[in-house]
Amino acid sequence: xxxxxxxxxxxxALDGLLPFELGIxxxxxxxxxxxxxxxxxxxxTCSVRPPGPVRADADxxxxxxxxPEALATADTVVIPASYELGPVYEQGVLTEELxxxxxxxxxxxxxxxxxxxxxxxxxxxxxxxxxxxxxxAHAEHFQRLFPQVAxxxxxxxxxxxxxxxxxxxxxxIDLCVHLVRRDHGTAVANxxxxxxxxxxxxxxxxxxxxxxxxxxPQQASTSRARAWALDRLHEPIQLxxxxxxxxxxxxxFTRRFREEVGVSPGQWLTRQRVERARHLLESTDLGIDQxxxxxxxxxxxxxxxxxQAALGVTPTAYRRTFRDGGAGAGAGRRLSRFPDLCPQPxxxxxxx
Length: 352
Description:
Blueprint: E1 7-12, H1 19-31, E2 41-46, E3 52-55, E4 61-64, E5 76-79, H2 87-91, H3 96-103, E6 110-114, H4 117-123, E7 131-132, H5 139-145, E8 150-151, E9 157-159, E10 163-166, H6 171-184, H7 186-196, H8 223-230, H9 239-245, H10 250-261, H11 265-283, H12 288-295, H13 300-311, H14 315-323
Helix pairs in contact: 1-6, 1-7, 6-7, 8-9, 9-10, 11-12, 11-13, 11-14
């Protein structure tokens, strides 16, 4: 791809699609801009048929401007959810239209599925032996239909390099923001998240959204402890320090924290430090040792181990990727929220 050509995202609209999910890649990738306000992605929508109407899971149809030939031009293909997958959902096999459509996708094209879009990738054999996720309500059915896929029903999304899948509905936003971050860095992704009025990253996984007894509204939250910790990531923070902020025992605090956030306090703290390190590596010229101290890892070796585990790259390689204008760093499956404390003025001409 030449420097002047925008990354082309082709969204495959199938009958029975969810309009909300169809709009996610249009909005998220459409908002990604350079500091000079140049669009970083070109987003188009296609069907498995010639241009024309596609049935939505609503009281209207959507007029799709491109046929399946658009897939041959894609750098990334996104497949939103559909409630009319027919043999794909029932038997795990592609329709003839989908077979013909997938034949047009070039080797090396990045494939992205939102919610039940994962069924299409699995039926096409693109998830065989690979980790993936889908909406938690479909997890058991998916596992029975595609036992060859390493399904993880507890996460919001899975990034396996050139194939990515998300859980249902709003998790598609998390995945698309993640892709912007992976392609262009934290600053661009945070701008997109701010303009979309969503967090740059949500902690925890789908387990937060599975039905469970409603918690007692009188129970204390752990939000004060989290806010306190975010202001002190560069300092040593013990579990008892966090519990004291909420006047709880360590055991009670840990239980409440897991209920609210979906991960343990230690896991959450590590994720915040990884994200702080990413931000510093991208946006400052601080040495690796200083970044490690400012992010709270203490030593460069400790930071290197944590970034390697979370992102699959070393701190030096991560910085080099973004300083060289490259894409693809941070392809790990777990990312964390870095609080954007300094909102920038909105360019209203470019967000409407």
